[in-house]
Amino acid sequence: MKHRKFKKIIGLLLGMVMLLMPYFNTTILAAESIIIDDISLEWQEDLKKDTSLEYLTPSDFREADGIIPNPDYLPNKEFLKDSLSNDAMLPISTNSNGRLADGVYVIINAQNGKSMASNNAGATSGTAIVQNQYTNSNDRAQLFKVTYLGTSDGHNYYSIRPMTNNSLGVSAPNNSSSDLVSVKTMSTTEILNNIYQYQRWIIAQEGNYYTIQNTYIDENLYLSSPDNSINNAQLIMENSLWLRGMWTFEAYTGASIDGVVMTHFTSGVAKGSYFSYSASAYSSTIGRNGPVTFSVADISGNSTNIATVGSTTGYFRGIENGQVRLYATYPNAPWLYYWIIDIQFENQNVFLQNVHSMLNLQSDTTDNIVKQSSHSAGINQMWFLEYYPSEGAYKIKNINNNLYLTAPSSALEGQSITVQSYSTSILERQLWTFEKTVDGTYKIKAKSHIGTSLAMTATSNEIGSYISQNEYNGAYLHEWRVFDDEKILNTPLIMQQTSKWCWVTCAQMMVRTFYPTAANYGDADTILAEQRKAVYDVFGDATATYETYDWNNDPQGLNLKTGYYTDVESAAQYFNDLAGGNMEFNSKLYSYEEAYIQAFIYDGYPIVRLSGGFNVAGENVDIYGHATIIVGYRWDETLGCYIYIVNNPARSNPQELTYDELQSYESDSGKPYYWVPSVVVDTFYG
Q1: How would you class 261 by CB atoms within 10 Å of its CB: exposed for 0-12, middle for 13-18, buried for 19 or more?
Q2: pLDDT, tens digit, for every residue of 536-570?
Q3: Backbone φ, ψ for residue 13 (5° rounding)
Q4: Which one has a higher pLDDT value, 57 or 642?
Q5: What domains, with CATH codes, occur in the chain?
Q6: What pLDDT score was predicted for residue 210?
Q7: What is the rounded distance in angstroms from the CA atom of residue 187 to the CA atom of residue 313?
């Protein structure tokens, strides 16, 4: 640590000398650039934690969700030998005819004091190079990486790369019809013959200043500010050397800079669809210029088959639903940068339900204003999601009237959402993105007003209230659930191994939905062993273990041990812990409304339902009961209601029950059964 701090201090001192004597002592300039390169590896962990560097990334680019060390990173200069000219690898001395040292600079015009800048922090080919009010050396839009390419015909040639995207180069116009300067795609190597002539710059000392010359069109063309002091005015090439063609180079002396930002990005891609991601890389290390390469992994960073991406093209295809990491990096970058991509809905009919009100988005039949209403499964509540690949967004069409969900024309909060005919003139207002929240729900945002999201107007569960656009504030008013007419989980149907073990069997089915074993496939020995383990964990005493307990004589009466709803929760937690899972469970003394049942199931969570003669509405009745587990639902056109799929551990086939039948029914013996207690996976809605 002391060694690193000493180098940092030396670097800062040299930087101060550089600011005082920037144009004469080129030995010092070279030494500074070497020190920055040498310490970059030692600073890796500090940089990873240093949030003060976040402002180096322009705010309109999408920064990474996370970074991990790049296992292929080489902490020495061996990697750079293939990307630099031999001459550029040599230390620069005072006998180098005033050669400018390789490094990152703010380049300031002598006449008006304005600095060179990438217009609007642009990172794409064609971005104008403009003049702007110099702010500070932490603004990457005003930083440029200058690299010596070699000497030819007595001239020292350099590349000048914007620090918004090092695979671009500052370019003189390549035809005589223009004098405007911009950035264009350039070779990522620093070899003279690999770079177009209009991107090779002669940087020469002229008294206390430098001139920046390009000879592609004319021998006497110099990079100049326009004859004004207007911010964002584009730089020009001029064939006479005036003061506005004179420049100073102020060296960047901060910590090493390395990064990737997405320049064409979406956080959600539909299953079966594609999106073309693009990104820019930047590094303060000479020779480290990109290009960006892509790869994909599962959410934990392991290999995956639910998505693919072109390593050089960024062409991403979602194959199955789920979340993945999209990695982007560049040759010998110290980090791998990743973004979380949610592979969402394929083109399909869905219902959109507000999390706060549990009411559905509905296109009213009398006007075009969108409202919320109780779930009816009517076609005025059904919306067709059509993915628009090039924008990474969806068109949302109402099935009843074939009109499209449309944002208002302005971004003002509180304005109503409408449905309108499809029109290319308002396409951005009819394109919507689904951004997943930590709760597993979605913020629904119009591409035209990305700062706002679909929200309830009222804070109550008021039927008929308008839906408007509002700035997301973390409340459930802004969050939506997406579900369709049918969802059946892969929960196994497992039979209880004694007449009293329905409670532990339902806990087993619940957890085996997420952590399968041989029990999922009917292996009798595994089923019995797992149920015995859980029963003993919940009720057994310390005189034995599951393995040593005499299950035939059953001294503790465990084979006929009944369990209450809290015991189902305990057994489920046991199964989860045994599998090394990270789930938690809640036992509740109530049943659930239909909207919540569908929310659980659609999000992948079964519900254990305990029904029987419990103390209902204050009446003391016999205590008896049975546990079953709800594992799916489907819409029945004939009945006009949802049918719920129930695994009953006492039956070899699933049951199909209406919501009313879930709530109460009469057994074959004439006993009334009521659904009261429940056990669910712990979620924000359960």
Answers
A1: buried
A2: 999 999 999 999 999 999 999 999 999 999 999 99
A3: -65, -45
A4: 642
A5: 2-56+76-251 (2.80.10.50), 258-343 (2.60.40.1080), 348-484 (2.80.10.50), 488-681 (3.90.70.10)
A6: 94
A7: 16
